[in-house]
């Protein structure tokens, strides 16, 4: 940015350099272009820019340094200019204070954070300029005790500024300056070693051949190098102590990340000087940082160190102290951090397998099943390195072994054993995908897999068990699918990506190879082994040469087997082959039709005999009907069987089951499913628009009749039948809701079906009776004792709840029915918390006000239930009441921080809460509080979400219900009213969000000058909105001052008996709080952030939670800025036990033959000389402890 020079500012030199600044001419005291502009444009070669500045410095170092100072000031986004007068007569702190006053207040952006093409490469150019500057000055200028003194003092002072832009820019400059100095120190060390060797070689010569002059020159050169190295050490000490030890714990995450990134570079570049525990401790501590980007920098810095095996010895103590933290970071909530943590552990494993215990490895193994593909791939590489790194290499001179005798045979067995031990048998595709990048050759050895399944075991080899063979078949299927489709399994990718030419060639080669193997191998597998569904999927991925044999085998298997997976595999195989684009379509279609004709005829014949009146069906008849119905249902899932009119026969079967009540469970379940498919296929045909009007009328009748049938089966005594009927009902109600006419399908409007109130009530009752149940109660009813069975039962209940919640979200049932769901939020948070929370979020997007009314209704229902259990004189400190109040607090947190968006909803919530609290008077008379007055204590949890003007309005509305005597009451029973009134009257500025520099890693710096216009704007908005602050009061009806008259008791939306609890249970246990929760101390008050060196990221060991932690509703909490710095010497000493941290001074290692060095020169750049007194008292606690 161009700026004026101060009057009378002249250079010390004359002649050639008097009219130039940094190589650019000046006219009339104005610079044509400044150093900042040159670097910002990035069009000039950086070395030429630096050479121009050096030339200017040689002619007049004051003017050149002034230009450099202004360069750093302007790179921070400050429009102020340091004049020569200021430079000569003012201290650094005064200059910085002056520049702070002249800082641009219009925006919080500055060059390092600005967007746009011109700023995109600014950071790179800025860092390059500093690096080149030190490199070009390393032989003379940096030792003149002037240039580096000035620059380091300036950067140290700026890095301590409360202005974020100054602090960020100067820290980056100081760290890059330090990196450049480390490189200089390394070169000096190499030169000293070379000089020492030359000196020793010359001195060891015979006296006659020894050149004394050369010895003196070498001695003089070594002395100069030694002095230069001492100077560099002092400079690095000044930067490290004055900048790094304060800024690595800065409040801004970007600044902390810069420090950690650069210290990693120092340790890698000059390991002899920096790779020790005194510097590694900073990386270890910062791995606990609360910002993911800082933790990520720690891991990448460590990866560069562990990659070099020569450095492993220096990392042993660090590894032993911080290994557990690295292992825990594999579960980091930031996926990028988790990936790098796994990669770091892979490097640790590569360097030394003894470091990681079996428990450490197991914590990484299970991540191969992660839904996040980068995490899974990194875990797959770790698994491959651990389990398969010791495989024997095949001798090239020996003939290559194939099949069961190949080297891959044992590795494939190991993969199978791992898959079985992980006990996640439905996730083979995820395991294969995780290992695909690192073990593709192993996973594509289909010849070996087929051999393991078909060939007899070798002498002394143990044969695979049936369970192991099944697992091997699953893995083989997944490898075939992965190779043929070339995309990850469901849930691990955003969609199919475009393959490169190389990937397409690999895909074609794999398909050709698998075709050659499986065309021969699959018939043998089908004949020699028990039928497995996976074999049929494999046919889909390559060309078939034996179609007739395949169709014959499919028919035989369908006729012999009743396993659902096998039948569905046959159905999907036929569907894949029945493609009209294939030349084999007619042959496959004929075979399919013949098979289905036989099945439907057999079913109708069996059903007629089965339903004959007066005869008791035996078990054989029931089994025949069930097996045939299962086959038809499996094929109806993938094929349109409308021409066989299966609705009539299935409906007759279901109706008979209702009338007689003795229909076998499985027959009813499959009949319901088959009828469901009939409805869906009919709807698909009608939606195409080619059907007749009669078809739509028929579909409407069938759909409504089937829904009524399912509703009748909701009252069945069999749980499995009720669950099937409930699931199908939810699907049909969602499909045939008003959503069916969206997208220009108004012709389907006659099919819209909205459930009646009785059906809605039955659906909700089913959820309350079958989903919100205790684990022990469910186990006793189902007889499940094993862990896998419990997980499966929970998964089924989650699906049932999700099906009902979708009805709420899509307005199929009334939103107020969600109150019975929302009130279970805390009690069943571990099981259904994510589903309920998402439902609340979606309903709020649909209608904020109705959602708020539903939330307050759920709290009112809980309050009424508590009154029924405990009576009106309950203790407000009871766990039941505290549980309801805690639920209200959680509900409050879900409204977020934007009060404008939720203004009307929160106001309506308070309105309903106040009316509920006063609507039932006390039977003892007006002198006693209303029965529900304690509800105001619960309602006060939402007061902080009210805007200031709305608090006044709500308070006025509250006073309409209060009598004069109520306002004077001070007894304990009136405390809820008193506290609620106080919450509305106090905290007038609660909604004013004060953003302080350092609270958010991406927030703008807030300065004092900026406060006035913001306050004015807020005042204006309040004046404009004050007139409409009572709009919400009249949203539904005109309100009058209510009279306290008796009103009916509020009940649940479903009339049902209260749930009976176990003998040792009562309501107090439903929403009870643990003693730790009840006695939890209040959060520490946030400290003023005028001082930016306060640590914000070193917590106690139990502070951090992984994203898979069991903490209650951590994600719901509002963001809180806490000072979680380790606050005791004991904590520091515990972390550093056994580590040698005697000194903080940078002491470069001596050369190989170097004699004892003299003591370092005094520190010319003591940070205390440029820091305020308030900052000087904030030395790092760990450093003080070590010095003591």
Outline the secondary-structure elements.
Layout: E1 20-21, E2 24-27, E3 30-31, H1 35-41, H2 46-59, H3 61-75, H4 84-89, H5 92-101, H6 117-120, H7 122-137, H8 147-159, H9 164-203, H10 212-247, H11 253-269, H12 271-274, H13 277-286, H14 292-306, H15 316-328, H16 335-351, H17 358-365, H18 373-388, H19 408-422, H20 428-435, H21 440-443, H22 446-454, H23 466-485, H24 501-528, H25 533-539, H26 547-560, H27 564-577, H28 585-610, H29 619-636, H30 646-660, H31 665-687, H32 693-713, H33 719-735, H34 757-770, H35 775-782, H36 787-809, H37 819-822, H38 829-846, H39 848-870, H40 879-893, H41 903-918, H42 935-939, H43 948-961, H44 964-968, H45 975-985, H46 1011-1026, H47 1075-1078, H48 1129-1135, H49 1173-1176, H50 1181-1187
Antiparallel strand pairs: 1-2, 2-3
Give a short overview:
Residues 1-12 have a biased composition (Basic and acidic residues). The chain is mainly α and 1188 residues long. It is 58% helix and 1% strand.
What does this structure look like?
It is a single chain. This protein is mainly alpha-helical and 1188 residues long. It has a domain at 847-985. Helix content is 58%, strand content 1%. It contains 50 helices and three strands. The protein has a three-stranded antiparallel sheet. A hairpin with a 2-residue loop joins strand 2 (24-27) and strand 3 (30-31). Residues 1-32, 393-399, 540-545, 988-1143 and 1151-1188 have low confidence and may be disordered. Residues 1-12 have a biased composition (Basic and acidic residues). Keywords: Cell cycle, Cell division, Chromosome, Chromosome partition, Coiled coil, Nucleus. It is found in: Nucleus; Chromosome; Chromosome, Centromere. Pfam families: HEAT_SCC3-SA, SCD, STAG. Residues 185-238 form a coiled coil.
């Amino acid at each position: 940015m161009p700026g004026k020079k101060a009057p009378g500012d002249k250079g010390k030199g004359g002649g050639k350099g008097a009219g130039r600044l940094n190589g650019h001419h000046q006219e009339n005291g104005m610079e044509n272009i400044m150093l900042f502009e040159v670097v910002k444009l990035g069009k000039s070669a950086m070395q030429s820019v630096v050479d121009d500045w050096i030339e200017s410095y040689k002619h007049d170092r004051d003017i050149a340094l002034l230009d450099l100072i202004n360069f750093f000031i302007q790179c921070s986004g400050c429009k102020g200019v340091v004049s020569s007068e200021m430079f000569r007569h003012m201290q650094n702190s005064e200059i910085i204070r002056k520049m702070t006053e002249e800082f641009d207040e219009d925006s919080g952006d500055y060059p390092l954070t600005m967007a746009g093409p011109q700023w995109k490469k600014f950071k790179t150019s800025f860092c390059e300029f500093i690096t080149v500057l030190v490199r070009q000055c390393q032989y003379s200028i940096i030792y003149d005790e002037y240039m580096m003194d000035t620059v380091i003092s300036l950067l140290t002072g700026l890095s301590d500024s409360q202005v974020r832009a100054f602090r960020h820019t100067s820290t980056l400059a100081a760290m890059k300056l330090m990196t450049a100095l480390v490189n200089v120190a390394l070169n000096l060390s190499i030169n000293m070693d070379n000089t020492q060797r030359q000196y020793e070689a010359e001195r060891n010569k015979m006296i006659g051949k020894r050149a004394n002059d050369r010895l003196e020159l070498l001695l003089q050169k070594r002395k100069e190098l030694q002095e230069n190295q001492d100077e560099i050490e002092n400079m690095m000490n000044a930067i490290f102590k004055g900048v790094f030890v304060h800024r690595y714990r800065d409040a801004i995450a970007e600044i902390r990340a810069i420090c950690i990134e650069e210290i990693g570079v120092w340790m890698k570049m000059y390991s002899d000087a920096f790779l020790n525990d005194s510097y590694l401790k900073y990386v270890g501590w910062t791995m606990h940082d609360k910002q993911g980007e800082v933790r990520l920098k720690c891991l990448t810095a460590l990866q560069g160190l562990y990659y070099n095996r020569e450095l492993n010895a220096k990392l042993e103590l660090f590894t032993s102290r911080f290994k557990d933290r690295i292992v825990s970071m594999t579960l980091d909530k930031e996926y990028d951090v988790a990936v790098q943590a796994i990669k770091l552990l892979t490097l640790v494993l590569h360097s030394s397998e003894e470091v990681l215990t079996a428990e450490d490895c197991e914590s990484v193994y299970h991540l191969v099943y992660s839904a996040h593909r980068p995490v899974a791939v990194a875990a797959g590489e770790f698994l491959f390195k651990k389990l398969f790194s010791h495989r024997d290499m095949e001798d090239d001179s020996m003939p290559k072994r194939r099949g069961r005798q190949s080297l891959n045979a044992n590795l494939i067995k190991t993969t199978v054993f791992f898959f079985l031990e992980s006990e996640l048998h439905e996730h083979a595709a995820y395991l294969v995908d995780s290992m695909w990048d690192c073990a593709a050759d192993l996973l594509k050895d289909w010849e070996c897999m087929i051999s393991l399944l078909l060939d007899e075991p070798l002498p002394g080899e143990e044969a695979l068990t049936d369970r192991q063979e099944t697992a091997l078949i699953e893995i083989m299927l997944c490898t075939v699918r992965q190779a043929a489709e070339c995309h990850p399994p469901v849930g691990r990718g955003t969609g199919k990506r475009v393959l490169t030419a190389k990937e397409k060639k690999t895909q074609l080669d794999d398909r050709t190879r698998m075709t050659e193997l499986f065309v021969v191998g699959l018939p043998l597998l089908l004949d020699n082994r028990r039928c497995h569904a996976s074999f049929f999927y494999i046919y889909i991925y390559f060309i078939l040469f034996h179609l007739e044999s395949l169709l014959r085998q499919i028919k035989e298997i369908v006729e012999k087997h009743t396993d659902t997976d096998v039948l569905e595999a046959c159905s999907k195989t036929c569907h894949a082959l029945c493609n009209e684009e294939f030349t084999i379509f007619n042959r496959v279609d004929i075979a399919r039709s013949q098979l289905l004709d036989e099945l439907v005829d057999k079913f109708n014949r069996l059903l007629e005999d089965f339903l004959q009146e007066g005869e008791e069906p035996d078990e054989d008849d029931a089994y025949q009907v069930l097996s045939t119905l299962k086959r038809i249902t499996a094929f109806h899932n993938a094929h349109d069987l409308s021409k066989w009119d299966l609705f009539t026969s299935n409906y007759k079967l279901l109706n008979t089951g209702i009338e007689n009540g003795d229909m076998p469970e499985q027959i009813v379940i499959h009949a319901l499913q088959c009828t469901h498919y009939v409805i869906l296929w009919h709807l698909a045909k009608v939606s195409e628009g080619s059907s007749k009007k009669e078809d739509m009328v028929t579909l409407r009748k069938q759909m409504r009749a089937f829904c009524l049938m399912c509703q009748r089966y909701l009252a069945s005594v069999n749980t499995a039948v009720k669950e099937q009927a409930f699931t199908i009902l939810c699907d049909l109600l969602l499909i045939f809701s008003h959503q069916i006419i969206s997208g220009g399908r108004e012709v389907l409007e006659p099919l819209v079906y909205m459930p009646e109130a009785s059906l809605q009530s039955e659906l909700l009752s089913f959820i309350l009776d079958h989903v919100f149940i205790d684990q022990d109660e469910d186990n006793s009813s189902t007889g499940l004792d094993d862990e896998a069975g419990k997980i499966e039962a929970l998964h089924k209940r989650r699906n049932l709840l999700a099906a009902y919640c979708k009805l709420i979200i899509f307005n199929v049932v009334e939103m107020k029915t969600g109150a019975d769901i929302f009130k279970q939020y805390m009690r069943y948070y571990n099981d259904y918390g994510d589903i309920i929370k998402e439902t609340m979020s979606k309903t709020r997007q649909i209608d904020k006000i109705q959602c708020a009314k539903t939330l307050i209704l759920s709290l009112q229902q809980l309050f009424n239930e508590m009154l029924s259990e405990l009576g009106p004189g309950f203790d407000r400190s009871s766990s039941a009441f505290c549980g309801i109040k805690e639920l209200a607090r959680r509900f409050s947190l879900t409204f977020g921080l934007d009060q404008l968006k939720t203004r009307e909803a929160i106001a309506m919530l308070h309105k309903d809460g106040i009316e509920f609290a006063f609507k039932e008077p006390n039977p003892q008379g007006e002198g006693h509080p209303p029965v529900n007055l304690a509800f105001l204590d619960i309602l006060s949890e939402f007061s902080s979400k009210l805007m200031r003007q709305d608090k006044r309005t709500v308070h006025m509305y509250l006073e309409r219900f209060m009598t004069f005597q109520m306002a004077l009451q001070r007894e304990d029973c009136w405390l809820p009213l008193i506290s609620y009134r106080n919450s509305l009257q106090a905290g007038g500025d609660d909604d004013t969000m004060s953003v302080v520099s350092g609270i958010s890693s991406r927030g703008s710096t807030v300065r004092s000058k900026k406060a006035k216009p913001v306050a004015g704007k807020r005042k204006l908005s309040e004046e404009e909105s004050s007139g409409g602050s009572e709009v919400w009061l009249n949203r539904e009806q005109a309100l009058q001052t209510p009279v306290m008259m008796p009103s009916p008791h509020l009940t649940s939306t479903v009339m049902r008996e209260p749930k009976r609890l176990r003998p040792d249970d009562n309501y107090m246990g439903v929403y009870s709080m643990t003693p730790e929760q009840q006695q939890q101390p209040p959060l520490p008050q946030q400290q003023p952030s005028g001082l930016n060196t306060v640590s914000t990221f070193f917590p106690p060991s139990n502070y951090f939670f992984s994203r898979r932690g069991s903490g209650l509703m951590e994600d719901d909490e509002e963001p809180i800025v806490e000072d979680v710095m380790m606050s005791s010497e004991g904590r520091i000493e515990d972390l550093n036990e056994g580590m040698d941290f005697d000194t903080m001074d940078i002491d470069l290692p001596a050369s190989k033959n170097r004699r004892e060095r003299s003591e370092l020169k005094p520190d010319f750049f003591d940070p205390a000389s440029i820091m305020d007194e308030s900052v000087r008292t904030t030395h790092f606690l760990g450093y003080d402890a070590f010095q003591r």
